[in-house]
Amino acid sequence: LYALLFLGIISLWWHWRARDRMKVTNLMGKYIFITGCDTGFGNTAAKIFDKKGFRVFASCLTETGAKELKAVTSRHLQTVLLDVRDSDSIKKVAAWVKAEVQSEGLWGLVNNAGIMGPSVPTDWLDIEHFREPIEVNLIGLINVTINMLPLIKKAKGRIINVSSVGGRLAFSGGGYFPSKFGVEGFNDSLRRDMKAFGVKVCCIRPGLFKTALSNPAKIMKEKEVIWNKLPPDIKMQYGEEYFQKDAEKKQKLSEICLNEDISPVVQCMEHALTSLHPRAHYVVGQDAKLFWNPLSKMPAIIQDFLL
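RESULT FIELD:
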């Protein structure tokens, strides 16, 4: 009986692995649109997908980012300036993409643009500190998706939303975590809505990776600026030593969890774009797989104790 059970498990696993490796054919020259290509995941993805023969539309926030990317990629890659907080800009870019792809449609949309915002206790913040990450990471992502959706449906293509382990587990105050929880909800509803149209929707949940977003010095500087502006009564409640202790704790966490190599995130994007059966969710990074993801499924009392 145990032998049969073991053989059944092995057979299922083997079948899943074989299914996971099945690829879509004739993807050469297909159009994909990636947001947030100035640095980090988006920048690396644009370069790699360009080399692999996709026709990439890479949206950048800055002219410098766009020029630098164009200088190291093929003539097929096209850059475009886009601030995902600007609805008019999104509409114009979507119209430009539509004119470029014509009847072929858009095979892939990679919603990657994101910002961290301050990561500090809630009573240190005002509403504007929350607004910006939510505007970029969630509202901007939804707005880009809505405008590109007709082109994706035409191609029966793929939508890849870059969330975070922070979309399952909030380990600090600030707008970043609510924005990523929102991305998870939008991703799941969109996946179910699009199923009938042959559009596959995937969510990528990276752990802590070495990018401009997770620069510890920048994060600490933002925190220090907010701390210095706090009313004396709030500073007194937390105590002067809080800032230093918190900085040391976050530094240790960063050293333990930080993934130096960002290529696994791009590999997940590639699998989502090219696999016949892409996964609904991709958890990426050793820290995410071994700590954050398991912790997100544990009771609140355990989460609160560890965080």
